[in-house]
Amino acid sequence: MSELRTGRRRYYNIFSHFYDLFIKLHSRNYGEETRNFLADSSQLQDKIQPRILDICCGTGSVVLTFAERFPDVMAIGYDFSRGMLLKAYKKDVSHKIVFMEGDAAALALANDSFDVVCCSHALYELKGSVRKYALLEMKRVVKPDGSVLIVEHEVPRRLLIRFLFYIRMLLMGPTDSREFLKQGLYPFRKIFSEVDLSHTKSGKTKLIKCRK
Fold it and tell me: Domain of 116: which CATH number?
């Protein structure tokens, strides 16, 4: 892992202590809406023992939602920050989820393994080349009939929340992050055969659904 990525890992290990509070302030009452929308969009209702991979899982809110919604799920939460994973592990009181530490751009997982691979509110924070390899890895590990679900914020309308949004972008690298946001679906269509866009009811979050 590069020196830059190592530095970002240290940042997220520290940020893990404040992350849930930040997300609560940022998302307000829409976090649950987003997680439920993501689970509904996975279309796993009729799957027996579905396999889920949550990339950049943070403190585990999304993968925990999948575990609660689908009782027989085999779920993995994957993140490069040990601090984030420790927070997520403590939330998993039923111990149904496997948490793995590793790089999204080099997944230590087999080809064609998962019915759903998701990445929530994290992809735009990855640098260009790392983001590209992370998407290629998601494509590699999802099953041929599975889905890759990418969730990202739309630019907030409220002034304070928009200010926080851009502060976070500045911390991640303003030029690269802004460029990614402007490209829309283009980076996904370069990699996946099918790409669809939808939004939560509130319009605050977008879901990009990709097929191999």
Answer: 3.40.50.150
